Amino acid sequence: MRIILLGAPGTGKGTQGKFISEEYNIPKISTGDMLRESITLETKMSQFIQSQIKKGKLVSDKIVCDLIKNRIKKKDCSNGFLLDGFPRSIEQAYYLSESKITVDYVLNFVMSHEKILDRISGRRIHPQSGRIYHIKFNPPKINNIDDITGDSLVLREDDKTETIKNRLKEYEKITYPLKKYYLNQALKEKLQFLEIDAADSLINIKNKIKSILKNNR
Ligand code: AP5
């Protein structure tokens, strides 16, 4: 099973992606996580990536398409995969289709910008595992501590209000047109395009996704 999670920053793609990955035993491939990981390498390329992320700008299509190309060649993707945050531009979607990488589901997470700011401002993450918390909606058992490892949780560098505003602008300008693109693809291919009300509770969204994917165990 191959799934794309589309949607603006902070709509819960990473949170539900982790659940889908565990429930259906397919790897979650997050270009955001991969890019943040690559920053630690301290090369010229990683400095560029870091500055784009810090500004709330998208990284170039070439860089992310290369990351995806190498990642989905790996053995764990033979049974399927979940793309979290890719594609994010029409060019990236063309890359998938030109490479004959088909997908079964595109789940589009939809929520107002006001709610997005609420969600992102309370987010805390455990970078090593990708576990995502929220101080109000999905708190850890002990304040600011990862439930499994006991490590301290951190704030993402690009979760400052000014950066979030830029990320939302980039989304509207570059990523939003993918909705129309995939609605059209759904008319031509086997692919299913479904909208998820991202303002709903964690459990309701989980159940909705389960019912969408129930025939794919
Ligand atoms: P990336 O890491 O992909 O970030 P994003 O898409 O902006 O999405 P987020 O991770 O902010 O949010 P999310 O939807 O995963 O929400 P989450 O589950 O955390 O990208 C970062 C940067 O990398 C980009 O800005 C860009 O520079 C670059 N990049 C990445 N991919 C790229 C690409 N393909 N091309 C070019 N550049 C790329 O949830 C948010 C919060 O809400 C959490 O605290 C969570 O606990 C809480 N929450 C989730 N669901 C619920 C719920 N139902 N109810 C209550 N709280 C909830």
SS class: alpha/beta
What's the overall geometry?
globular
The CATH superfamily is known as: P-loop containing nucleotide triphosphate hydrolases
Q: Which CATH architecture? A: 3-Layer(aba) Sandwich
Any idea how many domains?
1
Region (NMP): 30-59
GO molecular function: AMP kinase activity; ATP binding
EC number: 2.7.4.3
Keywords: ATP-binding, Cytoplasm, Kinase, Nucleotide biosynthesis, Nucleotide-binding, Transferase
Walk me through this protein's architecture.
The chain is an alpha/beta fold. The chain has one domain (2-112, 175-216): 3-Layer(aba) Sandwich (Rossmann fold), CATH 3.40.50.300. The protein has helices spanning 13-24, 31-39, 44-55, 61-72, 90-98, 113-121, 161-175, 178-188, 202-213, and strands spanning 2-7, 28-30, 81-84, 105-110, 123-126, 131-134, 192-197. The strands form 2 sheets. The protein has a 5-stranded parallel beta sheet with strand order 2-3-1-4-7, with helices on both faces. Strands 5-6 form a two-stranded antiparallel ribbon. Strand 5 and strand 6 (131-134) form a beta hairpin. The protein is globular and about 45 Å long. The protein starts with a strand and ends with a helix. The mean pLDDT is 94. BIS(adenosine)-5'-pentaphosphate is lined by residues 7, 9-15, 30-32, 35, 52-53, 56-59, 64, 85-86, 88, 92, 119-120, 122-123, 132-134, 137-138, 158, 167, 201-202, 205.
